[in-house]
Queue: 2 jobs
Job 1
Amino acid sequence: MGDNPMKAFVMNGIGETGFAEKEEPQAGPNDAVVKPTKGLVCTSDVHTLHGAIGERENLTLGHETVGVVEEVGENVEEFEPGDRVAVGAITPDWGSAAAQDGHPSQSKEPLGGWKFANVKDGTFAEYVHVNEADANMARIPEDVTDEEAVYITDMMSTGFMGAEHAEIPVGGTVAVFAQGPVGLMATKGAELQGAGRIIAVESVPKRQELAREYGADEIVNFEEGDPVEQIHDLTDGEGVDSAIEALGTSGTFEQCVKVTKAGGTVSNIGYHGEGEHVNIPREEWGVGMAEIDIATGLCPGGRLRLERLLRLIENGRVDPTHMTTHEFGFDEIDEAFRLMETKEDGIIKPLILFD
Ligand code: ZN
């Protein structure tokens, strides 16, 4: 590897995309090079393209991928060429101070584990470089398809983290704001965590239907009235034990605080890509003394977590593929981006086929 040109789908300044020729990556001693077979486009790719993390030139986009190992460095022990693997969207530096302190996703700086399509080329290319391969990818079991496995790289890991951070008591009540793919996986995660009642906030019928499939007991349609009032009505004015923010707007974040009862938890997994501030409603937050915790997190990485998520698929606990609404060849990826931006044609997740 390393001497031949390959094709990559890149960002060329804010809002501009195109295909570029790049050199194939090489594996350092601890790294791997993977040839993608399937990928998913993420709403955060669209945020990146529109400048959420600043201007980028000739940066390969994408961070959700599965593929086949092409090359491994001399220190890699867990993998060999030919292995079918899922690559974490977040690929931490496991020796970093933040990792040693229990926050691997943050690595050397805040969000430092987020490398693909941020500080290094992403995964929408013919070959992908994976740092610290033993810790940042997982072998896909025989019974799990590539299409299933690609959902663990970000959607399941992030969505389930939303439920894990929400401190849901067994039998407790949960509200999940927004049922995009991450919100849907937060709903499923809440079910797996033992929630007794799950209220999903969503207006799009197809997403409402999937929310029910993934464990929602009730749907609150914000187009039919204030969701805070509706949730208070549903809970006899009590509010919920846990609220999960899966949209990334200050408005929904405020609503999450307003529906959470004293002692409860607001778990944020929304990507707040716009605006100057995210506001906490002072009174409903009990003037800072109602013991309403606010948890945040970036998609957890790591081979062991990826393996646990694969186990859930392997044993039929979750089928994420119902979120795949569209398929595109790698050559047609521009159209997938366009649809993710406009959200037209009922799109939830577009699967990108590399082979
Ligand atoms: Zn993503």
Note: Residues 157-296 form a domain with the Rossmann fold fold (CATH 3.40.50.720).
Job 2
Amino acid sequence: MKRLSWLLFATVIVVLVASCAGPATTEAPPAPTSPPEPTSPPPPEAEEFRVVVIGKSVHPYWSNVEKGVIAAGADLGLSADQAIFFVPPQEDVAKQIETMETYIAQGVTGIALAPSDPNALEPVMKKATDAGIIVTTLDTPPVEDSVSLVYIGTDNYSAGQTAGETMASLLPDGGLVGIGRGSDTALNALQRTDGFLDAIEGSGIETLEPVNDKEDAARALQLANSVLSANPDLAGAFGVYAYNGPAWATAIKEANRVGETRLVSFDATTDIINGIKEGVIDATVAQREFDMGYKSVQLIYLIATKGEEAAMSEMGVVDGVIDTGVDVITAATLKDYEAGLDAKGIPHEWDTEGWTP
Ligand code: BGC
């Protein structure tokens, strides 16, 4: 709504300036001058700007996203109610839709959403853009041709390939691998699984059908336990979402299979880092979720204050995407990873003091 009125305001100014130039004359046209500076909307009134970031489930992974949201808000001089973060307890498409509706009704400036089901969320995202709200996505991509202006997050297919290649190098003789994930609709889960399966092709690794816990950590553990008891010789396990790695780790320890069932996970929350230190998690593909939260707020702020084109170029958007990248962490690289986070000032609740690989 606000953005439309700035555009209208800018258009009115341009029309007024043009009409003040006086009637057309037959005099020679003036010498060409440099083109006028592009008009950009005036910055939002401090108290009018509001951005909402909507995640997928209550989990330390999403707390890291929230830290990024808060840090960006502070750096931009916003108050706590101008950079808002929300997640439902577990995967909950209806709750995401309801939350979108609430903030559309409030006429916020922008919404960044991680759609648990991109098809189900697209109509309400469209409703938001029709209302003049800036809509972007983070962590999990929207449908193709979505109204989402930019996706900020991991290239999930290629990150899944990285996980698959890592598993193939851990299992040179192949074997059976279980897959645990938290959604059968969210594109990040589907793309990671596809990338993983493509990367292990021809390696002698066979996979079981992925089990879906719908972002419920307790259910993820039950499923990991039952897959392992049905397949006591399981050679490997792949944890697609942040709590899947720890769920497999607990199941593997309880089954006394540390080192025998090789484990590749996603993300770098404290429980995963502890799994690497203990040697039960062989490798993890760490996303940069703090950056996803930070950049979502920053991008929407820049679009609102400087206009879409300037914001896209300042943020380095390529084909509607800001690829936040991943880090592969193993026991051998954990200390370097920690040093990298510290150098960037990214908070983490774990440390490697007193630990050696
Ligand atoms: C995914 C999120 C998911 C989270 C769950 C992450 O790996 O990127 O989409 O909500 O795990 O803990």
Note: Residues 1-42 have pLDDT under 50 and may be disordered.
